[in-house]
Amino acid sequence: MRFLAALYRFAVAACCFAGTYEVWHLHQYSSLVYFTFQTTLLLGVVMLWTGAATLLKGIQPPAWLKGCLTLYSVIAGLVALFVLPAADPAITPRVFGLLTVTWAHRVVPVAALVDWLLFDPHRRFKWPYALGWMAYLPVYVAFVLVRAAIWPHSGPLADGTPYPYDFLNLPMLGWSRLGLNILEYGGVFLALGLILIVIDRALPQKVLVAS
Q1: Residues 1-49: pLDDT tens digits?
Q2: Where are the beta strands (DSSP E) in 134-211?
Q3: Where are its TM segments located (predicted)?
Q4: How many domains does the chain have?
Q5: Is residue 31 situated within a structural domain?
Q6: Which domain holds residue 97?
């Protein structure tokens, strides 16, 4: 079963890299301003790590890191599902027949969640993790705003707009609305992080699919 778990984790890593094809193959580095691209690339690296550790009985990634990236992947999928407009298939690359956004926003979140549920031991998450996982949000927002101020026509949008998401578009929203958006998304981060911890504590400590 250990080999099956390792194979699955390598497959999840491959899905992550399929979803970030624009960055590493097409060299569209401005795409790295997207939260999804940043977190999906990191998840891909961590899934390679955990796959190799599973296969070789090595040191696994720390629980907080695996939980963090699983949470971010799920959040990216939910935001894409409920907030973002649909991708234009005419300009979005495909990998193995699927749009890259489909890999990043649909396949990867589900695959990462399944991996965490089935192949990770549980009852390892601590309540403060939920606050720690939120820390990336203000850092990411600051990165977007500073980058936009320094390079106002750098993309990633085709017209040069530096804001990857409308809910972070400062000139369009103003500071008050932007601040409210940040608070709302911070609340979502915290709530989903707490839900993940509750699920982790409710599951058996032993790996559900024994390796």
Answers
A1: 889 999 999 999 999 999 999 999 888 999 999 999 999 999 999 999 9
A2: none
A3: 34-56, 63-84, 96-118, 130-150, 178-199
A4: 1
A5: yes
A6: 2-202
